[in-house]
Amino acid sequence: MQTNITDPKMTSSKELQSHVLRIEGMHCAGCSAAITQELQSQPGVRNAIVDHLSGMATVETEAFVTDQKLVDVVVGSGYQAQRMEAIVDPVLMQAEAERAQSRSEFLWRRRSQIGFALWIPMESLHWITMAQHMHNSAVDIALLIGSTLSMVLVGSGFWRSAWSVLRVWRTNMDVLIALGATTAYVASLVIFIAQHMGHLQGQSTWFSEAAALLAIISLGHWFEAKATKSAGAAVRELLELQPEKAERIGAAGTSEFIQSQDIRAADLIMVRPGGRIPIDGMIEVGEADLDESVMTGEPLPVRRTLGERVSAGTMCFSGMLHVRAATTGRDTSLSRIARLVQHAQTSRPPIQRMADRVAAVFVPLVLVIAAATAIGWGVAGSWPTGIMAATAVLIISCPCALGLAGPMAVMVGTGEASLRGILIKDAAALERAGRIETILFDKTGTLTKGEPVVTNIELLAFDAQAAHTTSQPSDGHSSAITNARGTGQASPTSPTALSLQHVLALSAAVESGSEHPIARAITRRAAQENVVVPLVTQFESTPGLGVRAQVNGQSVEMRRDASASCVLFINGASVARFTLADSLRAEAPKVIKALHTIGMKTGLITGDRRPEALRIARESGIDQNMVTADATPESKLAVIRGHGESAMMVGDGVNDSAALAAAGLGVAMGGGTSIASESASIVLVGGTLSSLPALIDISKATLRCMRQNLFLAFMYNVVAIPLAAFALLGAYGPAIAAAAMACSDISVVGNAARLKWALKRARNRSV
What we know:
50% of the residues lie in helices and 17% in strands. It is α+β, with helices and mostly antiparallel strands.
């Protein structure tokens, strides 16, 4: 099994360098948007992605920009930042991310517990004394003390965050919360003092409401922190598949246990029954049944034996193996997948960018609306109503849910896909996959096994003088014509004959420099015939057309042909016609049927002859009218562009790379070439088609979840702001506003949790 996984840094321009920062103090999309804007305004910064859920920023810059410069920019924006030292180690990155998420969850849990411990007794005291007509100055003093404690113990975190951005003339969500709570508290304190001086008698205070909104908002943030930590658990689940310890066999045959991350290339590792393979490598001793579902998505065990490649994280069900490490323990395919999943989870889907832009300007806009509300009610003669209405506007308008809408769904979708052997490189690819209507397949190596065999060699009549083929074949065999079936009968139309061995020698020689499956098939056939293959010079390859070279002083070409797979030319004269056939992947018909069931159109694009393309389409279940044969890389590109953004291209070869890059979405087979994996936005890690329907299901469900989340987030603000501004929430408007804002957060994270549960249940059903 061969898996090619490309790190995102490897696909960047060599002129750019990547920086990863850990940022603390971000609580909303407004925070991340402000930092992103500040970073991107710096000289030399090409791109910046800041994710407030994970607390990470990825910045691409020119070479002269340093980590410290970027840290200074973030600190100057009012947040804490530090550079990530070990970006190449996903284990350390994940540990750092989980440490920050656990700390955030702990802080919000403690704040909400303290907040409710203060607010509930205050609210109970207020209602009981009101019902018994016992509300007096002593009760007001008790409410003042409770509210003050809530401001200090719960509200201080909001105030610190608000001040850190206000001092650099920026705003975030915590500005609204701090300002709303402070307004309610200060107004109540003014009324309390005035009443003790004989004024404003009969005017209610809002001490309990100030405490209520801090408690309820903290509770919402606690739920959000728990959901964020859970949604990002896919990376941890991936990394846990690589065992912590490995049993290394020494030169003397003795074994010792070491940390898996300390494995060096060429170490010999023992894997016992029931254990997981800790490293990518090749089996040197033994055979076993392996669970490779983490790479392929296939739940059934696969038999692996001497000389076959295995990947870290796969489970050994039976048998004991000695595996020769091909990589270090820190650079396995599993860790590279985890690193790419982390990258995808911190990227932003296009659908989220609108919400981020709204969130970035939302806080200043809300401040204006709140001020207008207070002034409007004051001019109308009711300043107390204006204060309460303005406070409710400040609280209910917090754009937390807007910033959570896309990222929460992306974290769930990309994480779940990775557990099925689907590597989604960024959030934009996940969103595009959710909009796909047509899936176009390459043939060789994608729908077929990619191992064609020579089924017939037809020796052609030719002009011997033009071809200059008077020399004896290099293997010394007689020059009697032999057809592919080995009958030894001369062609009745051939004035001069070449031996099959000579034809195979020349064709294998010119194909020896090509990576195409047809080339491998011809060289295998030559090896089976024990043909000595001569050396070549001046080798040239034209993707989609053929290859040419100089062999023993002759110009030899292998070209595509309309009536067969390819034709051999010597000095411009056609000598032999080769017919090859490739077998369909066993899973292809089932996958095509599943795609049709979920409403996908399918098509086939191949450089092979039309009869062969139609045969593969017929056997796999693809509509014959959706077949494009005899395609060059350029014509493939034209067909792909003709389908527009709603088309997905699935391929594996060098001649697919342009089409994969140009398609609405490019999906590469993990067993294909590295350039195909780099050109594609999604990689089927195990190199099988079985996970393709799951990719469509996951992406469509994730896109649907993002849309639902954005609707929920916008709905709360669009409906609630007018209600708050016109004082339609009543005397307890601030508390109701806090509850509504918390419900907005909880509805978004709850919807993401529902998505995770549904996708996990579907995965368990498929096992």
